Design the sequence.
C-alpha cells in the first residue's frame, strides 16, 4: 500500500459515511487511515452513546502511537452485523484520492494500484486505464483521461448517495 501522500482526515471520512469497527480495522490494516483516526472515532462514539463497552473507552483513551488492536479487535468481535468491509473502505480511499488528486502526477495510476490491492473489484473497472472501455476512444489521451476521471467521480457520487440514503 502506501500510495497516499496524506491519509484521509476523520472529518472528511465521516462526511462520506458511517463506519463499522470492521471497516475501520480493514482501513488501518490497509494503511488507509491512521491509528489516530480510529481513536478519534472512538471518542466521537463515546459522545453519542449512553452505554458503551469498556474497549471503546480504552480505545478513546489511547495516545496516537499506542496499540489499538486489543481494543478494536474486541469491538469488531462484538459487532452485530458484518458488512462488505472492503466496499466502504474502497469508497473512502478513492474519495480521498479524488479529493487530493492534484498532489499526484498520475492519480489514475494510483487508482490502478488500489484496484489490484482490493482484488480487482468490478465496480471500479470502468475507470481503470488498461481495462477495455464500453465507449469508443475520445481521440486524445487527455480526453480519455478526463472521461475516466469523470467515471471515477460518478462512482464516488453514486456510493455517497448509497451510504447516505
Sequence:
Amino acid at each position: 500500500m502506501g500510495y497516499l501522500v496524506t491519509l484521509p482526515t476523520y472529518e472528511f471520512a465521516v462526511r462520506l459515511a458511517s463506519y463499522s469497527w470492521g471497516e475501520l480495522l480493514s482501513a488501518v490494516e490497509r494503511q488507509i487511515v491512521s491509528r489516530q483516526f480510529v481513536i478519534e472515532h472512538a471518542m466521537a462514539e463515546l459522545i453519542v452513546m449512553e452505554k458503551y463497552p469498556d474497549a471503546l473507552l480504552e480505545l478513546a483513551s489511547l495516545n496516537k502511537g499506542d496499540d489499538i488492536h486489543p481494543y478494536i479487535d474486541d469491538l469488531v468481535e462484538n459487532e452485530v452485523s458484518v458488512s462488505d468491509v472492503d466496499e466502504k473502505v474502497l469508497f473512502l480511499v478513492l474519495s480521498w484520492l479524488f479529493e487530493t488528486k492534484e498532489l499526484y502526477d498520475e492519480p489514475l495510476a494510483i487508482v490502478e494500484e488500489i484496484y489490484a490491492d482490493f482484488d480487482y473489484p468490478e465496480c471500479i473497472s470502468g475507470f481503470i486505464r488498461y481495462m477495455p472501455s464500453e465507449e469508443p476512444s475520445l481521440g486524445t489521451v487527455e480526453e480519455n483521461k478526463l472521461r475516466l476521471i469523470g467515471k471515477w467521480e460518478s462512482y464516488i457520487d453514486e456510493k455517497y448517495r448509497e451510504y447516505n440514503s
